[in-house]
Amino acid sequence: MEDSNSQEPEFSRRRMLGMAAAIGGTQFAQMLFGSTSAQAQTPASSAGGGKPMRIAVVAQQMSAQSDQRSWAGFQQWLKKAGLDKTWQIKQTDAKGDPGQLVSQIEDAITAKSDAILVLYGTLTAAKSALDHLTASKIPFFSLDSGWQAPAIADITSNNYAMSAQTSQFMIDTLLAQGKTKANMCAVIANFHHGTRKRGKVMKTALTENEWITMKNERVIQYSGFYEATQNTVNDWLTTYGKDLDVIWCPWDEPAMAAAEVVASRGMQDKIMVIGHDGHPTALDRMRKPNYPLVCTTAQAFEVWGAYTGWLINEIVAKGGDAKKLVPVPTVEFPAPLLVRGVNIPAPGEPTYNAKDLYYIYRDRAVAGM
């Protein structure tokens, strides 16, 4: 364990993300998770025993794969850093209820937690709790909740960029098929800032590609989304089936629901499905050569959880300068574009180790320079 009075090297967010780009996803993840091979150089592993901390972790919807994966990454980092015995973690689940989320944040404030972390919260509906957080001066962090004051950081991906990638791939694929006219339908999710942004970017891309017609769209809520998507896609295939080319989905789970319906109709060679997130269950299915879901983006949910643990340790436990460690409050990790039959990670390989389709192209060129 380091002497708390010794001078520590300064690690900024910019430097950490620069390191990620320089050494690759696998090694960077090893550093965050404190693997043996990286112990000597990782800030996380320098935590040692650490000082006792009481951390409140409030999940919007722990049944969601994203919440589960980020929580697993946080716990993995905690254990590898040697802090699982000295940090007391109270984890609660709002079960999708914004009112419960507010109540659980308020409870964490009342309990005088040393830090509060919200996973995938609807913070736009939590103004009263955020006001109380500001007054309490308890350090506050969030994951993919859309930055809201007084959060020190919101850890996420660039949702605009993710949708730009999948939308461009969709357009390029249609062009490669020789299409001069194409039709699509879209499942829209406005309840979360990330999925809402993805839908808006997709529609912006269509304004530059007017040969693609949006035949219909359906706005879904999280509750019952799988069945709602399946019923909707069934209706679309009945109405537009012979003319439909694409079904766009805001994240992988409704994309899997859509893909199931497309496959059940024997239309997997006619209609492609677009997804986002890179969940392992979706990737397992995308390893099949004719699965309708053709592309997604791999968000580093586990790494988000690990990096949040690192930030809490550096800022709250060690007293590091938050403004230097988090120069801008939205901390965005890369989300590689994954394409069926091209760069889907091997079974069991963490999705945060995946290499973006276009980085594969770049590396081919660089290898010959």
TrEMBL record:
UniProt-recorded Gene Ontology molecular function terms: carbohydrate binding
Database matches in InterPro entries: Peripla_BP_I, SBP_2_dom, TAT_signal
Domain (Periplasmic binding protein): residue spans on this chain: 55-316
Source organism superkingdom: Bacteria
Keywords associated with the record: Signal
Localisation: Cell envelope
GO CC, alphabetical: cell envelope
UniProt similarity note: Belongs to the bacterial solute-binding protein 2 family.
Protein name (database record): D-ribose transporter subunit RbsB
Organism: Caballeronia telluris
